[in-house]
Amino acid sequence: MSIDAVDLGAGAKSVAFVYVSDRERALGFYRDTLGFAVHSSDNYGDYLSIPGSLLRLTVIPDMKPHPHPVVGFEVSDVVSVVKAFRERGVVMDTFEGMDQDDLGIWHAPDGRSKLAFFKDADGNALMLTQA
Length: 131
Hints:
- It comes from Tahibacter amnicola.
- Residues 11-131 form the VOC domain.
- This is VOC family protein.
- Pfam families: Glyoxalase.
- 16% of the residues lie in helices and 36% in strands.
- It is built from 2 helices and 9 strands.
- The strands form 2 sheets. Strands 5, 6, 7, 8 and 9 form a 5-stranded mixed beta sheet that branches.
C-alpha cells in the first residue's frame, strides 16, 4: 500500500531543527560565520533562511550535541565552500581511516560524491555534500 503525498501548499518549506544551548553564540556561528539570514525570531529561538528551506535554532540550556550530523547542506562545489568556511574560521573534522584530503574532504571511490564535516558552536555535527 502506498500513501499519496499531501499537498502542503505552494508556500510550504521544510524546516530543519538544531538544538543549541547558547542563543547568541549559535546566531554568531550560523548568521555571522556561515552567512544565513535571520528569517524570524521568538522567545525560544530563531528561524534562519537557508537555500530551499528554513533552519530552526531552538534553545535548550542543557542540550548535549549528537555525534552524527544533524543537518547537511548539498552544495555544487564543496571545495569552494570548504575554503570559504575555513577563511571564516570553521574547522573541518577529520576521521581516522576515512582518507580525507588536506581540506578535510572525503572523495567517494566513484569519484563523484564528496563530503566534509564540521561542528557548530555547540558541537553539533554538520555536513557538506556534493553529489
